[in-house]
Amino acid sequence: xxxxxxxxxxxxxxxxxxxxxxQKVIASNIANIDTPDYKPQDIKFPDTLKSAxxxxxxxxxxxxxxxxxxxxxxxxxxYTTVETGDRANLDTEMMNVAENNLNYxxxxxxxxxxxxxxxxxxxxxx
Length: 126
What we know:
The protein is mainly alpha-helical and 126 residues long. Helix content is 60%, strand content 5%. It is built from three helices and two strands, in the order H-E-H-E-H. The chain has helices at residues 2-31, 45-55, 90-124; strands at residues 41-43, 81-83. It has a two-stranded antiparallel sheet. Helix 1 runs antiparallel to helix 3. It is flat.
């Protein structure tokens, strides 16, 4: 399948998973905005990615025979949520919703363009 879609499809799919998970966390913050002692949360995947990129290539090791081979995607990725402040702020959370929605839509558009490109190639080979 990688020959047809390349690495771009897997990368965009992972980004959509991240954006979807982040939307759930932001929605939870908004739903609990008036809950006493509720601490707003966010997913800090970009920070994790940046620190991994700053260190250079990440060495992956297959430590168990039932682990997926290096480079093979398997299942949903889990993201770690962290507390982001003392109280949820509606303006901040709505800004996060808007930003996340724009990035999600951008990723969907990029994925759609990838599929349109494949569709064009298939139609031209007929």
